[in-house]
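Appendix B. Chain record.
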Amino acid sequence: MKKLLQVDFGFSGPFGDEMASQMLELAGSINHEPGMIWKIWTENEVSQLGGGLYLFEDEPSAQAYLKMHSARLKKMGISNIRGIIFDVNTRLSQINQAPLLD
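Structure tokens predicted for this chain:
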């Protein structure tokens, strides 16, 4: 069963186009993570938050990525990392055009 990973953390920037320019290499590398289907990058400059939504093939892939990603963020000086793994209700999500790639 596919798993959705939601990650967020306190983040002081950069945001927007500057973030996109600085994170290009990281974004490309994420495509090679085992079991990863897609990622949506999230940011909120007003609330000083960064994060993402990820769709993984299975729970072990999502767990492994969360562990690795949390360690990477901590090395960058980021704390208060929250990662939650959800089951995906495919039937209902497809009604609402979710990009699940089934």
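Further analysis of this model is presented in Appendix C.
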